[in-house]
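Revision sheet: C-alpha cells.
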Amino acid sequence: MNAHHMQSNDVREVDIDTTRLLLDRHGRERVGRYMHTAAGTKWFPFDVRADEVSIETIAHQLAGQNRWQGAVQHRKFKTRIFYSVAEHSVYCSHEVPDEFALEALMHDASEAYIGDLIRPLKYDPSFRAPFKVVEDAHEKAIAERFGLAWPWPKWVKRADNLLCAAESRQIVVRSPDEEWESGKLQDESEWADVEIEMLHPYQAKEAFLMRFHELYDIHRNVRR
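Predicted:
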C-alpha cells in the first residue's frame, strides 16, 4: 500500500465506487466521499494522505468521542458521564517505556477520523475485515506524519489493556443482576494504577495537546 493514499485495489476490498472522483481544494482528484473535520476541511477516508493529518483535528475529535459507547459514570461525581478517547490516550502514554510514549498517545488517533467499532463487532472476523483495511491505512498515515513506529509496539497494546481494565473497574456501569464473566473480551487480571477523572472535552483536548507537544519535542530530538 502506498504510504500516501490507499491503492484502488484496497478500496475495492471495501466495495467503494472508485469511479466517483472528486476534486479537493488543491485540485487533486480524490476517491470516495468526504467527511467534515473540526478544522473545517474535508477528509477522504478511502483516500488517506499523511500530509493532511492534523494534530489539532485529532485532539479535538478524540476529545469529543466517549469511550465504552457512553456506558460510563464517575463513581463519585454523578454529573460526570463522559470519558473521552483523548483522556484515555493520555493515560496510556504514561503506561509504557518512555521511548514509546508518543506511540501510546497516538494509538487511537485514527478514531478521530473513522471512529471505532464496539468490541463484539471489532473482534468478529467477518465484521472487522473491511474496517481493518481502512483503520490500517489511517494508522500508517498518522505514523508517517509524526515519524512513529508502526505497527504499534507491543507495549502500546499492553498499556491499552491495562487502561481498559482500570476503566472497567472504575467507571463502567454494571447491573448486579447480570453475570459479567461469560463472553468478556478483555483481560482484567491486571489494571493501570490511575484515577479516571472523566475530564470535560475541552480539558481533555488541552491535556492531549500538552502531552503531544511534550513528547513530540523529545521524539524529534531522539529519532532524527
